[in-house]
Amino acid sequence: MEAPGVSATHSAGDATGSDLLARWSTRLHSELQCAICHNLVYRPTITPCGHTFCRSCLERGHDHSQVCPSCRQPLPSPVALFTYGRHHLLTALTRRWLSHEYHERILHVQTEEVHAHRIDYAQHPNGALLPIFVCTLVFPGMPCYLHIFEPRYRLLLRRCWVGSRRFGMICGRPSQPEPAPDQLPYREYGTVLIIEKMRFLPDGRMMVLSRGERRFRVVHAEPQLDGYNMATVAWIDDLDIIDLQQRQQQYTETLHHIMRQRLLHYRRFADQALCERIAKVYGPIPEGAQALSYWAASIVPLDRYIRYEALTLPSIRQRLLLTSSWLDTLDQHRNWWWLDSACSIM
């Protein structure tokens, strides 16, 4: 038989212990708050001056100012800060004693920063929400070298790097005195780029090698996310790929053969230094008709706003005809660009 008062004593002790644990957890949670986002610190990083922040918060702050957000002391380079400043003890504490809050924080970060930048063609066969980099004209299959220094694009590239490594590249519009109020601030057609290599420089800048993957058309411009553009886009594929009419296929093959022979003729008489530059950047003359149409549109020494038309055309045939007309125009004006080692093709 249980002694009188024992059960009550145990209950009181359990209640006191639970109350102490709850107060301790509340105090620990307040101590482990990031001073920038005021949430539970995630991937804690400690600065040389002794302050701790979420790594993503400190990265974004470092893009704009190289001082501690709390005490304004100078901070080291991002490479040193994020390599040696990781606080493993705080990570272990949050996982052990604040496991529920920790997992909620992970879900919040993934939803906020990564979800919109995981582009999966299988899950989105017709289009997707895409982060937009407004910069230059790139064709599918062609390389694009980027020097990233603006804070908003540093953030965009970091998020893409941990996501699917894909983002949209669109060239801007020529400056206009009075643009239409309903006009997009950038072109309607662009190219999905996939990051192949990314090098982080000591001061936070990035050197990026990316490559065009497929074309898209902007369906709707979405609100900006942390300073950079977002858009709902629809994928665009060449009609020739699914065109089964034999006569049209033969016509495309004929155009492909003529264009390839013409480019080989240019290369035969071209300046050697120019040939080496083209081969180093864009590779040799491609074999396939689709790749050849994009390759030719990339190397023709015309303004990108002129060459942009090739990105909007729905078929390989039309692109081959367009690039051929560009070459005809250059030849008629005796613009023998392939003989000039100083020709600008990039």
Short key terms for the protein model shown above:
single chain; 346 residues; alpha+beta; Herpes Virus-1; Archaeosine Trna-guanine Transglycosylase, Chain: A, domain 4; 3 domains; 5-stranded mixed barrel; two-stranded antiparallel ribbon; 8 strands; 19% strand; elongated; disordered N terminus
Task: Give an overview in words.
By secondary structure, the chain is α+β, with helices and mostly antiparallel strands. The protein has three domains: 32-111, Herpes Virus-1, CATH 3.30.40; 118-174 and 184-236, Archaeosine Trna-guanine Transglycosylase, Chain: A, domain 4 (Roll), CATH 2.30.130; 245-339. The chain is 45% helix and 19% strand. It has helices at 6-31, 55-64, 78-84, 88-97, 99-114, 151-162, 239-242, 246-269, 272-282, 289-299, 304-312, 316-332; strands spanning 44-46, 52-54, 127-134, 143-148, 166-170, 189-200, 206-225, 228-236. A five-stranded mixed β-barrel has the order 3-5-6-7-8. The radius of gyration is 28 Å and the shape is elongated. 29% of the residues are buried. Residues 1-10 have low confidence and may be disordered. One of its GO terms (molecular function) is ubiquitin protein ligase activity. Residues 34-72 form the RING-type domain. Keywords: Membrane, Metal-binding, Transmembrane, Transmembrane helix, Zinc, Zinc-finger. The chain crosses the membrane at residues 128-149. This is PUA-like domain-containing protein.
